[in-house]
Amino acid sequence: MMKAYICIILAILILALANAPIAAEENGNWEERVNHTLYWGDSIDVNGSLITANDFSKAKPFDVDTDYVMLTVLSESSEEWNILLSVNNSNIPDSKIIDGRLNITALEVVTGNDISSPYTKIGVSIFNVTTGEADSWVNATLQVSKTKLKNANIDERAYITIQLHNLRGSNIENISINETLPENLILDPEIEDIHIADLSPYSKEVIQYSVKALYPGNYTIPPTEIRFVNKGITYFQYSNSTNLIVHGPYINATKTVKGNKTDPEVLDITVNVKNEGDRAAHIRVHDEMIIDSKFIEGKNSANLVLFPENTTTLSYSVHIDKIQGNMIVPSAVIEFTDAKGYSGTVRTNRYYLINIFEDEEVEFIEEYVDDTRPQMNTSNSNSKDRIIEADIPRYGNIRSIRDLVDTTLKIINEALSF
Q1: Backbone angles phi and psi of 230, in degrees to 5
Q2: What is the mean pLDDT of residues 359-363?
Q3: Peptide bond before 189: cis, by omega within 30 degrees of 0?
Q4: What are the structural domains, with CATH classification, of the chain?
Q5: What is the mean pLDDT of residues 96-125?
Q6: Nearest residue to 387 via CA among 272, 302, 298
Q7: Beta bridge partners of residue 238, listed in sequence order
Q8: Ramachandran sector of residue 78 (left: φ over 0; alpha: ψ -120 to 50; beta: rest)
Q9: What is the mean pLDDT of residues 269-273?
Q10: Which of 127, 132, 331, 349 gives the lowest tally of CB atoms within 10 Å of its CB?
Q11: Is 80 exceeded by the pLDDT of residue 330?
């Protein structure tokens, strides 16, 4: 009697333990069941998992309740499960939970010699992981941080480091990295993607890449997005953002032409050159005159040091015997170099002279196609400019970049010593 009593208690405990996980999962946050009909060989995609009706019980002269279907479930991460389901079979269950996230229930299994192909009707429910639960799990699984080595000058590479740390005792697989860069910041050298293989338990992986800036300035690099798949579910983790300062001069120039109020054959021309960067630069300005025009007065060239946020202006007048609308206003050319030897060329936009008389929006002409020197875009500046043309001493022509750098350093040191 005692042995029978103990056996009954053990049986109850075994049944309780066997049913406890299923009951817990069934009481979870499952989405509404969706029904599907699968003929032999058919497949459906449910939340990234491929469910295939692989095989059925042997067909008999007529359909019986004990028929079963064999389903194959293939996840996004290539994990595979084979399950048998039946509707009224005491040895085969009618439902199965796959990996804690798919609940598949057989609603009907039909075989028999009187049909062209066996088929099954199944219902599939998806376990809904809330955003809070997913975030908590991801934060406890993968840690990502991003840092920069140091700020850079305009002609230097800046190095960015991303570190991934696996906080769990299992592999993290199928990791992809999506890095977004702000405008005017590019990967150097250009690469298609940044990728790493699987991350071993409790291990760290460090990835470093370099960027270059097209223009100096203060850049905020957004958080890096890390995408990985676990048990068929895609998760995302993000690093911190990082700030990068790129030093250097940024020379911006505009050229305007206006008709003289007292003489219809005279044009007044103004060239504004501003350094919008954070480093001084030695500049040489030379304005190309309109064809068939004669210089009257003013200044159409300059040779000086332009400090950050400062502007220099060239103004002069020309005489043209017969002003025609199809005449081209040529570019003003500005060559610059900073104290570290970084140099470039800026050209103002060209346009037809007719635009200034018809009071229409200026239509710019494309730049010279044979100009292979470094180019920078030009635009109008709304900031308050300080005209410094008269404050800087003038120097003669400089024959080489080396002479230009030496002279620039000399002028800057003299200016800073005042």
Answers
A1: -130, 120
A2: 56
A3: yes
A4: 25-128 (2.60.98.40), 132-247 (2.60.40.10), 251-416 (2.60.40.10)
A5: 89
A6: 272
A7: 225
A8: left
A9: 95
A10: 132
A11: yes
* CA separation, residue 373 to residues 244, 253, 376, 393 (Å): 27, 16, 10, 27
**What tokens were used for 135?**
């975030």
Residues with Cβ within 8 Å of 27's Cβ and at least 6 positions away in sequence, in order, are: none
Task: Centre a 10 Å sphere on the Cβ of residue 41 and count the other Cβ atoms it contains.
Answer: 10
Length of the chain: 418
Q: How far apart are CA 38 and CA 390, in angstroms?
A: 86
Assigned token pair, 351: 């346009």
Q: Please give the backbone phi and psi of residue 361, each rounded to the nearest 5 degrees, phi first.
A: -65, 135
Please give the Cα distance from 68 to 66 (Å, whole number). Answer: 6
User: What does the alpha-carbon distance between residue 266 and residue 277 come to, in Å, rounded to a whole number?
Assistant: 35
- Look at residue 233 and tell me whether its pLDDT is greater than 50: yes
What pLDDT, in 10s, does the model give residues 146-199? 999 899 999 899 999 999 999 988 888 888 888 889 999 998 876 666 667 688
What is the DSSP pairing of strand 242-247 with strand 152-153?
Answer: parallel
User: Which of 133-142, 214-223, 360-369 comes out lowest in average pLDDT?
Assistant: 360-369
DSSP per-residue letters across 233-245: EEEEEE---EEEE
Tokens 């030093």 belong to: 247
Q: Which two tokens stand for residue 127?
A: 């376990």
User: CA angle, corner 62, sides to 61 and 68, nearest 5?
Assistant: 105
Task: Name the 3-class secondary structure at 118.
Answer: coil
